[in-house]
Design brief:
Blueprint (H helix, E strand, L loop, with lengths): L1 H16 L8 H12 L9 H15 L5 H11 L1 H20 L6 E9 L2 E11 H72 L5 H36 L27 H8 L1 H22 L6 E10 L5 E8 L8 H66 L5 H38 L12 H5 L5
Antiparallel strand pairs: 1-2, 2-3, 3-4
Helix pairs in contact: 1-6, 2-6, 3-4, 4-6, 5-6, 6-7, 6-9, 6-11, 8-10, 8-11, 9-10, 10-11
């Protein structure tokens, strides 16, 4: 009884102290995000904060974008993030309410007849809520922390999406420039073949081959231009830009390949300690366990009210006393609530185990994709592209020595198409794989990795023969 009284007094203290935090729970979200992506998001709850973010976005857009500036713009400007941060306010409201005693209820009754009036008055308090307030507050605290993890989870996802969209947009733009050069060369070759054929110095078959290559090059350029527009729009969506800010400038080429690939240590354990989806699953299980304990505590008493009551009647002295109201467990002994809570807890345990299994597997797969992408990009940089350049230089020497025709020189240029596009796409795949690896280690399940090797652009760039 002493223990219950002490807990009740503690609950009253909590009820008096429960209030909203100054940061609304966002500081924890900012720290979780900063630890994983290296930049801090902002929760724009005032017009001044929104204006400051808008000014910073305009400043960043005035310069050619980089992977870091794209990430900062996304964290400042993505409206979906701001909407997800509003969930913090909802969760904190539930937490504050859980730390406050429910409002008392007042009942009033009046009976009259035979010249007499009888009045009943009562004020009832939720006594059960008072005794269970510490447990309820703990449960709501864990739910609030779960909401913070969810907000960070969404933020890290937007950051990864922004980086991926940036690398894809730069690669697509780079390929447009290259296919434009190919199309110009094909047009010149086609025009030369047309004139030579008209002069009787070129066979009909060779003339049609040059015309076919020009047609293919024109189609390849059109497809590359659309891919660039689509990639730019994907970047625009994650940055949430509209109007004048759409005219952002991308760099001319992708960043260079690092000197050496990353070698993360204890990658799987890092994922178990840092992955937000793993932390969320664990916290959900803990919250469910707390709820189960609360259900066991209150399985027989579900409603308990106590309060002051008085009664007065005409010509009689007023009577004072108290009233207790509780639910009698005649038909439902609470077994259904307990069974439901236990099943929910086991469900949470199983889901947590499955999330952990997926996280470990995704880390291994992401690292394999990362190393493969690095090795392929390095292979193109150190082997394929230099070899194609040496071949091109040799053909140019042969042409200058009048040992090869201009069409043989152009044929060599056709053979370079797949090598150049493959090199650009391999470098793009590396940066996307690097983003996915970081996400798999510390943030959330990575996005689908692109297929290794020459992509659709390279495949469509094969010359017709």
């Amino acid at each position: 009884m002493i223990r219950q009284t002490a807990m009740a007094l503690a609950s009253l203290v909590l009820a008096g102290c429960a209030s909203f935090s100054q940061d609304g729970g966002f500081d924890a979200v900012a720290q979780l995000t900063r630890e994983r992506v290296g930049q801090t998001p902002t929760y724009q709850r005032t017009g001044e904060q929104a204006d400051s973010a808008k000014a910073r976005v305009a400043e960043l857009l005035a310069q050619p974008l980089t992977a870091d500036s794209v990430l900062e713009i996304a964290l400042l400007n993505n409206r979906g993030l701001q909407a997800s941060y509003a969930e913090l306010g909802i969760a904190e409201s539930d937490l504050v309410r859980a730390g406050r005693l429910a409002n008392p209820s007042f009942s009033f009754g009046r009976l009259s007849g035979g010249g007499a009036v009888e009045i009943d008055r009562a004020v009832l308090f939720d006594v059960l809520g008072l005794f269970t307030m510490p447990w309820v507050r703990q449960v709501e605290q864990q739910r609030f922390e779960q909401t913070q993890l969810q907000a960070a989870f969404v933020t890290v996802g937007v950051a990864a999406e922004a980086r991926t969209a940036f690398f894809e947009a730069v690669a697509a733009q780079q390929l447009v420039g290259y296919f434009g050069q190919v199309q110009e060369a094909a047009e010149a070759s086609n025009e030369l073949a047309k004139r030579m054929a008209a002069a009787g110095n070129f066979s009909k078959l060779a003339r049609m081959r040059e015309q076919s290559f020009y047609s293919d090059a024109t189609a390849q350029l059109a497809r590359a231009q659309h891919r660039a527009v689509a990639a730019r729009e994907r970047l625009n969506r994650v940055l949430a830009l509209s109007g004048d800010p759409l005219a952002f400038t991308l760099p001319d080429r992708l960043p260079d390949l690092p000197v050496a690939p990353a070698e993360p240590k204890d990658a799987e354990q890092t994922a178990m300690d840092m992955r937000l989806d793993v932390l969320m699953a664990r916290r959900a299980t803990e919250s469910t366990a707390k709820s189960l304990g609360l259900t066991n505590t209150t399985r027989f008493i579900n409603v308990l009210h106590a309060g002051y009551q008085n009664k007065s009647a005409t010509g009689e002295q007023r009577s004072n006393g108290y009233e207790i109201e509780l639910e009698l467990p005649l038909f439902d002994f609470g077994s259904a609530r307990v069974a439901r809570a236990e099943a929910t807890y086991m469900q949470a345990v199983s889901r947590t185990a499955q999330v952990a299994i997926h996280a470990r597997s995704e880390v291994r797969e992401s690292y394999s994709a990362y190393r493969t992408a690095y090795d392929l990009a390095k292979h193109y940089r150190d082997e394929v592209v230099p070899l194609r350049k040496r071949i091109s230089d040799e053909n140019l020497l042969r042409y200058n020595g009048m040992l090869a025709s201009v069409f043989e020189l152009l044929a060599d240029a056709k053979d370079q198409i797949s090598s150049v596009t493959g090199a650009v796409e391999a470098l793009r795949d590396y940066w996307v794989a690097e983003t996915n690896l970081q996400s798999a280690l510390t943030g959330r399940p990575p996005a689908s990795a692109p297929a290794m090797g020459a992509g659709s652009a390279a495949a469509s760039a094969q010359p017709a023969h």
